[in-house]
Request: fold
Amino acid sequence: MDESPIDLTSNREEMAKLNSVEQTQLILARLMEGGQEDVDTCRELDSLTKLLDDEYERKNKGQPICDVIDDVCVDTILGYLDMRQADSVRAHAALTASAYLKAAGDKAADSLRTFFFDRVKRGTYDDYIVAFCVAAAIFPIAPDMTADIFLSEGFLPSLDPLMRRKWKSRKVETACLEMLNAASMNAQCREAIQKYCTDWLEEVVDQDPNELSKAIHSADPGVHVTEGSIAMRRHSEAVQNLAAVILAKLRAVPSAQPTTDGTEPRIQQATTSIEDLSKMFSTMLLKDPESGKRHSVEGLAYATIQPAVKEEVARNAELLTTLIKILADAPAKSPLTYGALSIFMNLVRYQPAQSEEQKKMSQLKAYANAAGKLAAPNPLNDDDHVSERCKRVFEARIVPVLVTHSRHGSVASLNLIVSIISALSVTTSLRGQLAQQGAVNLLIAAFTALPDSESQAKRTAAQALARILISTNPALVFGGTRARPQNAAIRPLIYILPSDPAAETRDLLPTFEALMALTNLASTDDDTRATIIRNAWPEIEEQLLSSNAMVSKAAVELICNLTQCLEGVALYAADNPQAANRLHVLLALADAEDEGTRSAAGGALASLTGYETIVAGITKRKRGVEVVLGLCGEESEDLRHRGVFIVYNMVACEGDVGKNARKEIREKNGIEVLKECAKNSRRAEVVEVTIQALKVLLEQD
Reply:
C-alpha cells in the first residue's frame, strides 16, 4: 500500500478546507523542504503571497498568519532571493517578501534586521551572498527600512576588508556590489558609500583585467582556476563593470554635503572621472553587447547626465546603433528598457525655458552651491548642441523602436518615450519624417493610454503632436487607408489650450502651438471644423482676448478657418446677444495693431459677410463700416483683398440690409476709398473685386 503523504498544497479542494493559518503552515513546510521544481516553488510562493495580501486586507481580523511566520520561516522566504536561485523564483520571492513586509509591519522590520546581521556575523561566503542579495532585492520594495539597516554603525566600513581579501569570490563581490548599486538610489546611503567605499570601488575599476591570468599563476602556478572559483586574486570584468555603475551614480549625482572641512591633503588620490567610466561602459557594449549589458546601460544612463558624456555618446554612431538594438531587443517593462530610454532622454533633453527672474534665481543658487564661484552654464547644454544631438539620435532610427515599445510599455517608459519624441519634434526639419515613421499615432495613443494622474506627460505628448501637425499636411498623416481618423488628434490638442494649472509660471507656447495645429486641421473639411467647435469653442474664444499678441493672432486664424462651415457661421449669425458680441470682438481684431491679426479677422469677415445677418450687424455696429474700409486702405495687398471682398459682399446684399449697407459705405467716403484701392493694387483679382463693388455703389438704389 502506498503511504506517501498527499500534497495538499497542489490540491485546491483540500487546501480550501483548511483555515489560513493551516494553509500558511503547510506552504512554509513545503518551502523549507526544498527540492521542488522551480514552477512548483513559484506556485507555493504565489499562494503565500495571496494569503499575506488577504491578511493585510482583513486588517488582522481573526488569528494573524504572521504570528506563525517566525525567524526560521523568514529565513526560508528570504533565502529564495539568493542570486543562485532561478530568476523566476527570485521574482516570485520578491513579491512574497513585499507582501510579508506590508502585512507584518514592525515585526517584519525587526525580522529583516535580525536575518541580515545574523548572516553577516557568521561571515561565510554563503552567508554574505544571501545577506547582500536580500538587501539588494528589498531596497526597492522598502527603501527606508533597508536604508536603516544599511546605515547601521560599523556595517559599511566592514565591507572594505571583505572586498580586499587576498582570494576573491566573484559571487560575494557581485552580491555586495548589487546591494551597493541598489542602495545608491538613496541620498543618505549614497553619502555613506561615498565616504566608506569609494577607495576600494576605485581599485576594483582600475584593475587591468588582462593581468588576471598572469597574476594568479605567478602567485601559485599549481592553482587551477575555474569560473566562480574563490581561488582568485583579481576582480572579474563583470564585477569591475558593476563597481563602475556605482561610481557613475556617485559622480553623476553630486554629494549634498561637502566631503571635506577645508583641510584637504595637499596631494589627493586620483579618482576615476565620469568620462572614464562612460568610456568603460561604451567599450563593454561595443565589444560584447550581450555580456553585462544591463549594468553598462544603467551606468551610461547615469553618466549621460553630464554634458561632456552626452556629446561623446551622441557622436559615436556605432554606440548609438548598438544602444538602439539593445532597446529594440529589450523586454517590455524591463529595467533594461528603462535604462536605454533614459540614455536617449539625457541625450535629447533641452534645458527648460526660464524667465529673466528665474535665470537670476538660478544664478544665485549656483553661486551659493559653488561656494562663491559663479559657474557659467555649460555650452554643451545649449539649444544648438541639443538640436544636433537630436538629429544624430533620429538618424540612428530610434523612432520605429519607440513606436514598438510604446504599445506595451509601462507608464514610466511611456513618459520617457513621449519626452524623447517631444524633444525630437523641436527641430522643425525632423517633423515630417517623424510623422512618416509613426510618431503621430504614437503620441495620440500615448495621450489616451496615460492616466489622468500623469497630466504633465499627457501635456508633453499633446504639445509634441501639435508641433508635428503644424509642419505637416494633415492629408498625408491621416488620409488614405490609415486606420486612425483625423479627429483623434483634436482631443489632445484641446487638452493644452488652457495653461498648465500646476506650473509656477504661465507658459503660453503649448497654447500657441495647439491653436496653430488646430488651424491646420481646420483647413481640411467641415467635419473636422464642426468637431473642433463642439469640443473647444469656449476655450478658443477665451484665447481671442489673450494679452499675448501671438496667441490672440493664432486664435483668430483658427476662427478664420472655422467660419468656413455652417456651425462656425451660426456662432456669429444667430439672433442673440452672444453672437452680436462675438461680431463686435471680431471687428475690433480687424482693427488691431498686429497685421497678422487684422488679416485673419478680415478673412473671417470675408466668409461671414456672405450672410445678411452679419452684414446687418456690421452696419449697425459703431465704427463697423470704418473698420472694413480701413482694411481697403492697407499697404498689404492681401489685406486690401480681404477688405474689398467684405465691401463687395455687403453692397451686393439684397433687400433693406443691402440698402442700408450701401448707404453707410457711401456716407463713410467708401467710394473714394475703393478708387484709391484700385489705383494702388497690382493684383488682378483685387482690382476686379474693387471695380465690381464700385459699380454697385455707383448705381442708384
